[in-house]
Amino acid sequence: MDRISTALKAMGHNERLRIMALLSHGELTVSELVKILGLSQPRVTQYIKSLEDAGIIDRVKEGSWVFSRISRANKDLFNLVSKTLEMLPRDDAILLSDRRRLDDVRAERSKDADAFFDMVASDDGQLGDEYLPRDDMDDKIRAILGNSTFAFMVDLGTGTGRMLKLLADKIERGAGVDNNSEMLKVARHRLSETGAAHLTVRHGELSATPFGAETADLVTIHQVLHYLDEPADALRESSRLLQSKGKLLIVDFAAHNQDEFREKYAHRRLGFSDDDIRGWASDHELTLNAIDNVSTGSGKPDVRLWLCEKS
User: Fold this and answer.
1) Higher-scoring residue by pLDDT: 27, 167
2) For 203-221, what is each residue's pLDDT tens digit?
3) Mean of pLDDT values over 63-69
């Protein structure tokens, strides 16, 4: 009862409600909230602390950045927060203005990321993974999938089509989706060199692909999640695409604190923990069944492989 009472008091404030409404669209840093809300940083920090103390939001530190997000730790409290947010008037002028500024912040991020990917489309070495032991990683990717073959594979955020090429002999048909046209040009060229007519790539958003529900039996997300504002969106779309018992393979950096990856390579997130992936998977009818690790031995982050299955 005390927890609910504290949460209700915290939510009974217009500015804190604005923050909650924004975080319902995805995690944000304090500096981003300051830019959207037009409030001072000390005031926003104070509101964030009040919401955190009430158990309404979580704060997660990654390197020099701290992300705030709606907490799911307590189911009853999360349901109360969700109901409160549902009751906010959709036509409220202040909330609509906040959402427009949120869109502006996200558009600016996307613009910077697109410029970066255009620059490095034909140079994998600039993506921050030139130090990775690729042969070891490729062997582990194939090993974690075992001897299975797949009818239809979708590669989300396909980039230069590397995963399609690697798994070409294990799939009857494969399609890669990416929103960067320059990367797709490289992917089409590289895949055409292999003579793999069963592999295609197309332009699109990985959180809303053009494929039908329950059409794939394998989805791959290779070195993509760390670029996303809301990584869980990719798992939601993966779950939509997958048939029952279909597989989702995620390959990404283990959680780390090397800010250079954010500053130099446009990473939004500094890797992920097993609990991050397990939690998002569980939210979207996916079960995390296998984990493997690729040790770089270079002072740089390791790479993790997470294999999930659709219920």
Assistant:
1) 167
2) 899 999 999 999 999 999 9
3) 79
Query: Backbone dihedral region of 130: left (phi > 0), alpha (psi from -120 to 50 degrees) or beta?
Result: alpha
- Note the pTM of the prediction, 2 decimals: 0.72
CATH number assigned to the domain covering 124-310? 3.40.50.150
**Of the options 1.10.530.10, 3.40.50.2300, 3.40.930.10, 1.10.10.10, the CATH number for the domain spanning 2-119:** 1.10.10.10
- Which band of pLDDT confidence, cut at 50, 70 and 90, is reported for residue 113? low
The domain segmentation of the chain, as residue ranges, is: 2-119, 124-310
List, for residues 245-297, the tens digit of each pLDDT value.
Answer: 999 999 999 999 999 888 788 888 999 999 999 999 999 999 999 999 999 88
Q: Please, what is the Cα angle at 202 between 201 and 206, to 5 degrees? A: 105
Pairing status of strand 303-310 against strand 242-253: antiparallel
